[in-house]
Amino acid sequence: MIRSRQIAIIEKYYQNFKDSLYDDVPAIHSEKLLEFQKTSFGEYAYQQNEIFNRWAYKVRPGNKRYYCVQNEQVVGQQSAINIQIRLDSEVFNAAWAVDLRIRPEWKMKGLGVALVGQLIHEYDVLLGFGVSDDAYKMFVRQGWLDLGLIDALVKPLSMAGYNDKAPNASFIAWFKYCAALFVSTLSNYYRGMVHFILPNEFRKIGRFTQEHEKLINNICSADVIQINKNKDYYNWRFIDFPGSGKYENYELVKNATPVAFFSIAKATYEHMNVLAISEIQAKKSDLGIIVDEIVRMALVKKVSKITYSGLDHEVLRVLKSRFFYSRPYGERFLVFTKRSELKSIIMDKRNWKISSSDSDAEYYLLHNNSLSHNEYPDSNPQKNGRCPV
Q1: 151-329: CATH, from 3.60.10.10, 2.60.40.1930, 3.40.630.30, 3.30.70.260
Q2: What is the pLDDT, as a whole number, of residue 172?
Q3: Where are the domains of the chain?
Q4: Could you tell me which CATH class the domain 2-149 is placed in?
Q5: pLDDT band, very low/low/confident/very high, at 49 (cuts 50, 70, 90)
Q6: With a threshold of 0.85, does the pTM exceed it?
Q7: Tens of pLDDT along 2-36?
Q8: If DSSP states are collapsed to H, E and C, what string results for the chain?
């Protein structure tokens, strides 16, 4: 009964606003949308960059950007990153709900509900990653399921990775960081000796191919919830991302055949060089080899720390064995479905395997290094109030 009432409320507000919602790219209300985005996302936010928008919404037409026009003004925006999820033999249309913004004077009028309602009409399952406090309250009222926080880990590599300007900076925090760095360094030395004695072959990936697609299907075949990621997705996400070159993609090769691959990204945050682990696709037996290679590359690149955000029990286990430490915060993970038969499966956090690159979290982290940085030289992901480091 409660759920039926929630759906009825969503539908009511959706019907009120649906005729004023637009999804065209480039936008026919381009100047009005640009003004709204500058106010809502920040003066130099990547959402204003048409290079980015063409990549996000034209190359992948399943992705959507909706905005609402009222009284000759853009008053709200909601976007979606489309994915396909497989449960048993059935495939469902799903999406990450991202970039929800409402003009202050239009809040509490049902517009946010209507914009999300547009996505509910289009997709069987909706996912939320890193939802703001205001959006979180609205989502919960709509019937979204809160699955808790995404795992967030960091491996310190140098003292430059300690942020003495952080709110929790103290002598105790500094001492803990030093101790973690010492243990991490010893682990790196040991793993480096193993690599020297038993080297593995890694190759840089130019484009993802059918061979990688078969590899993914093989690795993910036993997953309860399979997020379909084919070669087209990987090329779009990691090769053709605006400002190509920020992601580095490597495959582990055995007997001249790729058996695993990973994607990493170097970025600058608060004057620190960090390496983000964006994606790992590997069987359990190869995860340790992959992580050791990522650490080796990070040391060569002289970054101050390595970061990881995601949900994958086996990856988490291997990272902790290499002295990655859990951070005391992480992004919220929420799900919604209008399909009652899916609810028990998608609400079990253990059924999900996701990474920070699946949603829009890394757009903020990598914005400073993208092509949009050339257009907006003062760009700063912190102006968006979010950076997953």
Answers
A1: 3.40.630.30
A2: 83
A3: 2-149, 151-329
A4: alpha beta
A5: confident
A6: yes
A7: 467 888 899 999 999 999 999 999 899 999 999 99
A8: CHHHHHHHHHHHHHHHHHHHEECCCCCCCHHHHHHHHHHHHCCCCHHHCHHHHHHHHHCCCCCEEEEEEECCEEEEEEEEEEEEEEECCEEEEEEEEEEEEECHHHCCCCHHHHHHHHHHHHCCEEEEECCCHHHHHHHHHHCCEEEEECEEEEEECCHHHCCCCCCCCCHHHHHHHHHHHHHHHHHHHHHHHHHHHCCCEEEECCCCCHHHHHHHHHHCCCCCEEEECCHHHHHHHHHCCCCCCCEEEEEEEECCEEEEEEEEEEEEECCEEEEEEEEEECCHHHHHHHHHHHHHHHHHHCCCEEEEEEECHHHHHHHHHCCCEECCCCCEEEEEECCHHHHHHHCCHHHCCEECCCCCHHHHHHHHHCHHHHHCCCCCHHHHCCCCC
